[in-house]
Write a structure and sequence with these properties.
four-stranded antiparallel sheet; alpha+beta; Cyclophilin; ATP binding; ATP-binding; 2 domains; nucleotide-binding
Length: 241
Amino acid sequence: MSAVDPAHVRIAGSGAAAIRVSSDSGDRERDWRTVHLLADALARSGTSGLIGCVPTYESVLVEYDPFAITAAELTGTIESTLAGLDADRPLHDHPRHFVVPVRYGGELGPDLDRVAHLTGLAAEDVIRLHLEPLYTVRCLGAPGGSPMLDGPAFPVPVPRLASPRTSVPAGIVSVAGRQATVAPATAPGGWSGIGSTPLRILDLTREPLVPYRPGDTIRFERIDDERFEALRGHPLEAVAA
């Protein structure tokens, strides 16, 4: 067991009903595991007054009811939970794997040529680099539980759009900075859309609303127009790794 060093953890209030816990050990993977393992342990703790936990890359926002538990009491619970964590343990013993089919370019990927220009690559090389990695879901973001992924190995970060779009359709596959994602829901957005998936990712009748969790893996797969239409509306489901 590799214990969490409290010297590398910062616990601070965040407004009247939340506490932010950050890990800064200098090891990015360890920090990511620490905050997600903490969020999971707190969620399973049954702590009275705990509303929820929102983990990201190196921090977790712990939301609580101040009429049911004080900040000092919750801080004590956080500290004792951290002391029992094994920061080298994987998030899941059996991560789930997902394959996301993508039709690149054209109306479904309106910013593919922009990304190619900004990175100094040919459009086909942008696609190739986007297809190469086995991505780990780092955390869930907006809109609708988007899987936040470490981006492709482009030679430079991809700037966000100078003027964000007021509406980006569900299924858009996009990149920004050194990150990548696929949007489960229609929403405004400023990332560069390089393709789209025909699959339905968000299901409002299901709990959880999206099928993947932080720690699961995603691979993108290139498809053509015919395959896109054949898969339109099918749900995203886990497959054998």
